[in-house]
Amino acid sequence: MALANEATTTQLTKLIDEAKSYYHLEKRCLGLHGAETLTVLLSRITLWVIVLLIGFLVLLFGSQALAFWIGSITGNLIIGVCSVAAFLLLICLVIYIKRQAWIEEPIARFMAQLFVPDDDDEQEKGGVQ
Predict the structure, then answer these.
(1) In which domain, by residue range, is 110 found?
(2) How far apart are CA 40 and CA 114, in angstroms?
(3) pLDDT, tens digit, for every residue of 45-71?
(4) Whole-angstrom Cα distance, residue 45 to residue 95?
(5) Residue 94, Cα to own-chain centre: how many angstroms?
(6) Any alpha helices (H) in the chain, and if so which ranges?
(7) Full-model pTM
(8) b/e sequence 76-94, b meaning 16+ C-beta within 10 Å
């Protein structure tokens, strides 16, 4: 009878040790997944900030050149500047009207994909099968 109690105690101790080990591995895995998600998010934000800054400069200098060109064609610089300003205002209006489809939905899809991966993605990475 004492031998059975010792075997049960030994098995219970092994089970508790395995559970502790599993808990620590899961905690580490969760931390690594969080670090990976944060890295992807920060790299995408950095990329888009750089692209937007360069795009802004291109738009600024391009619109100035276009305004001067239209001004030289019409003989009046004010007409050139106003026509470019009206065109840019029209672009802003279109972007504002289409913001849901062009900005909000893609960002929501990206964030959902980043923080809540599909089950298929988890299986490909070696997750639960």
Answers:
(1) 2-117
(2) 8
(3) 999 999 999 999 999 999 999 999 999
(4) 20
(5) 24
(6) 2-74, 77-97, 99, 105-115, 119-124
(7) 0.66
(8) eeeebbeebeeeeeeeeee
Report yes or no: 84 and 61 within 8 Å, Cβ to Cβ.
Answer: no
pLDDT for the residue numbered 103: 93
Q: How many domains does the chain have?
A: 1
Residue 44 within a domain: yes
Decide: 33 and 122 in contact? Cβ < 8 Å: no
7 domain-assigned: yes
Asked whether residue 73 is domain-assigned, the answer is yes
The pLDDT tens digits for 8-19 are 888 999 999 999
Q: Measured in Å, how far apart are the chain's first and last C-alpha atoms? A: 41
User: Using CA atoms, how far apart are residues 103 and 19, in angstroms rounded to an integer?
Assistant: 45
Question: Is 124 among the domain residues?
Answer: no
pLDDT value at residue 19: 94
| Exposure letters 38-67 (e unless 16+ CB within 10 A, then b) | eeeeeeeeeeeeeeeeeeeeeeeeeeeebb
